[in-house]
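@channel sequence for tomorrow's demo:
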Amino acid sequence: MLRNFSIVFVCGFVGGGLREIIELIFKNSAPLATLAINLVGALFMGMAYEYIVQTKHDTSSFALIIGTGLIGSFTTFATFIADMHELMITREILNAVCYLTASVVFGILLLLMGRLIVRSCYHVV
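structure tokens (generated this afternoon):
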């Protein structure tokens, strides 16, 4: 238990650090940075999920370390909601709708793409 906690802690540190790097790259465009982070996270989550399916990997520790630790700290729903709130109170309704739509639609598509990438690696003839 302490081992898993320590690994999740370290992976969370790495995920948070990666998030900060992307936020620095997109410096003054908060919704764009959050969108990029969440879409990359969706792709990686799909890849992690399909890896578990293809390898029949022990899901408990792998999902905890990668899903909760690395990807969970890299992406954050709270930042998405804060960005949506900011767009709404500044009456940028069209931008808010586009941001919401892009986050959900492209997030699902990238999760599926991540699964397909890993699946293709395991089904190469």
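heads up for whoever presents: The mean pLDDT is 89.
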